[in-house]
Amino acid sequence: MADDESTANRIEWGQLPRQVRAAIEQRIGGRVLSAGGQRGGFSHGMAARLVLSNNTTAFVKAIPTDDELVPMYRAEAHTSAQLPAQVPSPQLQSTFETHGWFVAAFDDVDGRHPNLDQPQELAAVLTTVEQLAIVLTPNPIPDAPTIADAYGPELICWQQFAEHGPPADLDEWSLRNLDRLAELESTWGERAVGETLLHTDLRPDNMLLRPDGTVVVVDWAWPCRGAAWIDLVSLAPSIAASGIDPNPILEVHPVTRGTDPAAIDAFLCALVGYWERHSRRPPPPRSPKLRNYQACSAHVAREWLNRRVGWL
User: Distance between CA atoms of 100 and 273, rounded to whole angstroms?
Assistant: First the structure.
C-alpha cells in the first residue's frame, strides 16, 4: 500500500528492540530477510509480512505490553485461536511475550483488499459473510460477550445528544430528527440478540482477496455474539461508500433476508451516532486519519439511513 494510503503511524519491524526481533525469529523458525509493513488499519502496533530465510512467510503483530491497545491485540489472538477451521481466516501460529512486548504470529495470506465497486469482488465478499454466519452459528467461543454488553455503552450517542445537546455543527437533518434518532437508537440492543459469533469490524481493509477469488477475514479484535445480520449491516456503509446501494443486497442476502427492517434501521442509526460523536474528538497522535474516516462513515451511513426511514 502506498504511503498516501497509510492510515496509522505504525511501529516498523526495524524499530522493534533487537532482543524482540531475535525472539520472533527464533519462534517462527527463520531469519527475517524482508519485512513489508501493513500500512492500513487504525492501530499503531507493528504488523508486517515477514519473508524468512527458510523460504516461508509469516504475518506478525507486536506491541508493547504496557500499550493501551494491547488488550485488542490479545483479544484478536484469543479469538483466532478458537475459530473453527472452516472459518476463512488466517490461522494463528503462536503468541508469546518477550522483553515487554506481546507478539502474535499468523499464517501469511497472499492477497489484497477487495474493491467493493467491482461486482465479482463484492460477490466474493458477500459469499464470505454468508459463510461466516453459517460456520459461527451457534457461537463457538463461550466467553464471547453479547453485542449489547460489548457495545451498549458506546452506541447511545444520539440519546446523549438529545439529553445534553448536539454538536454545534451537526447537520440539519439530524437536528430536525434528533428525538426520533434517539428513540430509534434506544431499540437496537433488544433487536440485535442472537447466537452468532460476530466480527463486528468488517471493512475492506479487514479482508483479503486471494488469487483464487476467495476472501478471508482478518483482525478478530472485537468478537461478540448477536444476530447474524449485524456483520453485513456493519459492512454496508463501506458498500454505500463504493457507490452501491446496500438495500437491494440486504433484501436478498441470506443473513439479512427476512430481517425486520426496523432492526436494521436501529443498528444503523446507532452506528451513525457513534461516528458522529467520535469523529469530533481530537485525532489520536498515531492514527491521524481515524477521525476523517469516522466523519466520512457518518456522512455515508446517515445518507443511507435517511433513504431507509424517509424522514424529512
Answer: 37
Contact 287, 293 (CB under 8 A): no
How far is 179 from 176, CA to CA, in rounded Å?
A: 8
pTM for the complete prediction?
A: 0.94
> Mind listing the pLDDT tens digit for each residue in 229-248?
999 999 999 999 999 999 99
Polymer length in residues for the chain: 312
Q: pLDDT of 255-296, one tens digit each?
A: 999 999 999 999 999 999 999 999 999 998 888 889 999 999
Q: Edge-to-edge strands of the sheet including 57-64?
A: 32-37, 46-52, 57-64, 101-107, 92-98
Three-state secondary structure along 49-98? EEEECCCCEEEEEEEECCCCCHHHHHHHHHHHHHCCCCCCCCCEEEEEEE
